[in-house]
């Protein structure tokens, strides 16, 4: 039995919580996954998984084996990176997880250049607006929006800021007027992101000339469109349906082209202490990966060339 196949299959079952899900991830039939795990447990003389009709969970021995197996697979990836960097440059399959809208706007455009520069490199894009585990999902690079966890063990490369702006189409502003103060937003159609907590307000801050710091106002808003996808809200704003709060990296081309106009420019949107940004994340033992470095560098070049601010 191929020991590498055993480790890969077992880790997939443990990460996915089931044989069928692991089979889909690996691209094989469920019976093959079952046979490999059964053979592994038989060879070890230990039960690694608790099986029931509804779920598959790790036994105590399985948890310890899973942790060791993950480390071994990560070390194999790092060894492959070190060996292939000098011989082939960027090569093999690079698995990248990214938010859907960001990938459409900023990863899709670099694919031709990536292919031209690194013909031996294949890209496997896993698109989701939810954060995924790099280890459990076998992801090489994850593009994430958020603030850094100081205790995290991942390497983080800052790609762009995530500052947000209030914007609307020229046609909408001509019909309804340009708001001059946050309180006036309550009289406008506002395009809002659908949050789980059903928030119905926007926070805006403005530094005053005194020593009191940032003066923050929270404004109740309403509108005819809400969505849990920022690209839908961007298109609605361009179509003249209202004022939207969107990330600058998402609308910078629209602002530059005049399809959208920023309003209340003197105010900071959603002010707070967190340094929220776009990051490329990868495991520390993959620092030497030429494939990771090549992809991240090309993406950073594209964002800078497109005028997306780093801060």
Structure description:
The protein has 311 residues and is α/β, with parallel strands linked by helices. Helix content is 39%, strand content 24%. It has helices at 3-16, 19-26, 30-44, 60-87, 100-107, 111-117, 170-176, 230-238, 248-257, 290-305; strands at residues 49-51, 56-58, 92-98, 121-127, 141-146, 154-161, 164-168, 190-193, 201-207, 214-220, 226-227, 243-247, 261-263, 268-269, 277-283. Helix 1 packs across helix 2 and helix 1 (3-16) packs across helix 3. The longest helix is centred in the first third of the chain and has 28 residues, at 60-87.
Low-confidence stretches: none
SS class = alpha/beta
Mean pLDDT: 84
Query: Could you tell me the number of beta strands?
Result: 15
Radius of gyration from the CA trace?
24 Å
Distance N terminus to C terminus? 51 Å
What proportion of the residues form beta strands (DSSP E)?
A: 15-25%
Indicate the overall shape: elongated
SSE series:
HHHEEHEHHEEEEHEEEEHEHEEEH
Lateral arrangement of strands in the main beta sheet: 4-3-5-15-6
| Secondary structure: helix percent | 25-40%
How many distinct helices? 10
- Could you describe the largest sheet, including whether it forms a barrel? 5 strands, mixed
Structural key phrases:
five-stranded mixed beta sheet, alpha/beta, 39% helix, 311 residues
Secondary-structure map:
Blueprint: H1 3-16, H2 19-26, H3 30-44, E1 49-51, E2 56-58, H4 60-87, E3 92-98, H5 100-107, H6 111-117, E4 121-127, E5 141-146, E6 154-161, E7 164-168, H7 170-176, E8 190-193, E9 201-207, E10 214-220, E11 226-227, H8 230-238, E12 243-247, H9 248-257, E13 261-263, E14 268-269, E15 277-283, H10 290-305
Parallel strand pairs: 3-4, 3-5, 8-11, 8-12
Antiparallel strand pairs: 1-2, 5-15, 6-15, 7-12, 7-13, 9-10, 9-14
Helix pairs in contact: 1-2, 1-3, 1-4, 2-3
């Amino acid at each position: 039995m191929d020991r590498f196949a055993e480790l890969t299959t077992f880790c997939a079952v443990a990460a996915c919580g089931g044989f069928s899900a692991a089979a889909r991830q690996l691209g094989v039939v469920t019976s093959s996954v079952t046979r490999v795990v059964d053979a592994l447990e038989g060879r070890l003389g230990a039960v690694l998984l608790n099986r029931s009709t509804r779920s598959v969970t790790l036994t105590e021995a399985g948890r310890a084996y899973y942790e060791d197996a993950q480390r071994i697979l990560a070390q194999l990836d790092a060894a492959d990176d070190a060996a292939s960097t000098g011989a082939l440059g960027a090569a093999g399959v690079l698995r990248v997880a990214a938010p859907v809208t960001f990938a459409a706007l900023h990863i899709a455009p670099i694919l031709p250049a990536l292919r031209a520069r690194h013909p031996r490199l294949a890209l496997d894009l896993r698109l989701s607006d939810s954060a995924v585990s790099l280890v459990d999902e076998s992801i090489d690079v994850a593009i994430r929006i958020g603030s850094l966890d100081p205790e995290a063990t991942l390497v983080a490369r800052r790609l762009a800021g995530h500052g947000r702006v209030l914007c609307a189409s020229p046609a909408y502003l001509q019909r309804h007027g340009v708001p001059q103060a946050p309180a006036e937003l309550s009289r406008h159609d506002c395009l809002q992101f659908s949050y789980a907590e059903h928030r119905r307000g926007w926070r805006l801050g403005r530094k005053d000339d005194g020593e009191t710091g940032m003066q923050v106002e929270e404004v109740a808003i309403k509108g005819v469109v809400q969505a849990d996808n920022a690209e839908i809200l961007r298109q609605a704003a361009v179509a003249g349906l209202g004022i939207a709060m969107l990330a600058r990296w998402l609308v910078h081309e629209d602002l530059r082209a005049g399809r959208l106009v920023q309003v209340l420019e003197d105010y900071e949107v959603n002010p707070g202490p967190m340094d929220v940004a776009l990051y490329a994340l990868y495991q520390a033992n993959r620092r030497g990966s030429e494939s990771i470095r090549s992809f991240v560098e090309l993406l950073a070049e594209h964002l800078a060339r497109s005028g997306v601010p780093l801060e």
